[in-house]
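Why show two proteins at once? Because comparison is the fastest way to build intuition. When a single record is shown, students tend to memorize it. When two are placed side by side, the eye starts asking what differs. So, the first record is below.
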Amino acid sequence: MALISVFFLSACSNNEFQTLNSKQNYIFDYDGFEKTLKIQNSNHAYALFFFTQDCGACNAQIPMLNELYKEKKFPILAVLSGVRSKTQAQNVIELKKLDLPLVYEAKASSFLSKAVGGIYGVPVIVFFDEKGNMNEKFIGLTPKSVLENKIKILN
């Protein structure tokens, strides 16, 4: 019984995910009790961008996010769902001209989706503050000006 209590109270999990188009790996610390998702060794706000390769609204969102990523130097991590191989994910990077660091593994998509309360349609952009608290979740195509204002508030 004590072992079950210790397991239940720990409620934290660490997950490391590689990106395809950057040399950086991301280790996420998720605390289910505190409802925080923090990038390990980072004290910066960040965003997750959930998308699929066949989503028209996602295709329109990508250039805006690429610009914000470069202009504002704001960490935005792309999470791709629905691909079956590394080669397929690399093709998406090239076809979509994606500059954001991309995570494509099914495990990463599942873990990150659950950590933000579920993803039931795309595109979805979820902003987190420097402590890993979810700040805001945008569902659907979001104007660049709205995203710029959110980044300004979090920086």
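Second record. Ask yourself what differs from the first in the token line.
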Amino acid sequence: MKNAVPLPAFQDNYIWSWFDGKAAVVVDPGDADVVTAWLEANDYPLQDILLTHWHPDHTGGVDTLRQRYGARVIGPAAERERLPALDVAVVEGDHVASGGEDFTVMELPGHTLGHIAYVGADCVFCGDTLFHTGCGRLFEGEPEQMYQSLARLAALPEYTTVYCTHEYTLANLAFARRVEPDHDLLRQVEADAKQRRAQDAPTLPTTIGAQRAFNPFLRADEVALAEAVSGMVGQAVPPGVDTFAALRALKDRS
């Protein structure tokens, strides 16, 4: 996926959008006006709307866009009662052909119970599950669920481009640096991210390989990270899901 464009919305959302030469696709359009401006400026027809979960900042523009452009709406079957009306309700393993791409649906409970991602040949649209140097809050799921969901994403090829939907990178890096203040790569990544944001440029997309290297929420199995978390909480925390849960709790309070 070389042509995905992040359309900024609200305070820190990105609506990922692309044009395949015939029609456009948007992912999690919380704001119809932002999408309409992009479509009209480029004279693009809108073919599909892909949804990862039900939260209003990801779905608020769907009805307006459907009415205006007749777009097909695709989203998780498990959340269909909380979503705008779906034309295609998908589950784990379903295939979605959209915008010149072939996606496989991956169910990723944690942020919400029915959260999904769209996995292509070299990319993943993962909503609010995995962020640059972070992960989503557990609004509905349990730590074990999110831990397993992140493990599934981490198992994708390292070259996989990660399209997540919030510009949380600087805050996530500040937290990660408190956990691991001597992590040289985190220091370098933070400097680059600060430079990008100073120029009002996005820090996204990222890659699975990059996130494996420095995202603490993908490294909860590492003994050194577990020891760092243990020091922060004042008690021994074993590597794995317990370290992940402790990390998430610390981030929630930060």
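One difference worth noting in the second protein: The chain has a mean pLDDT of 97.
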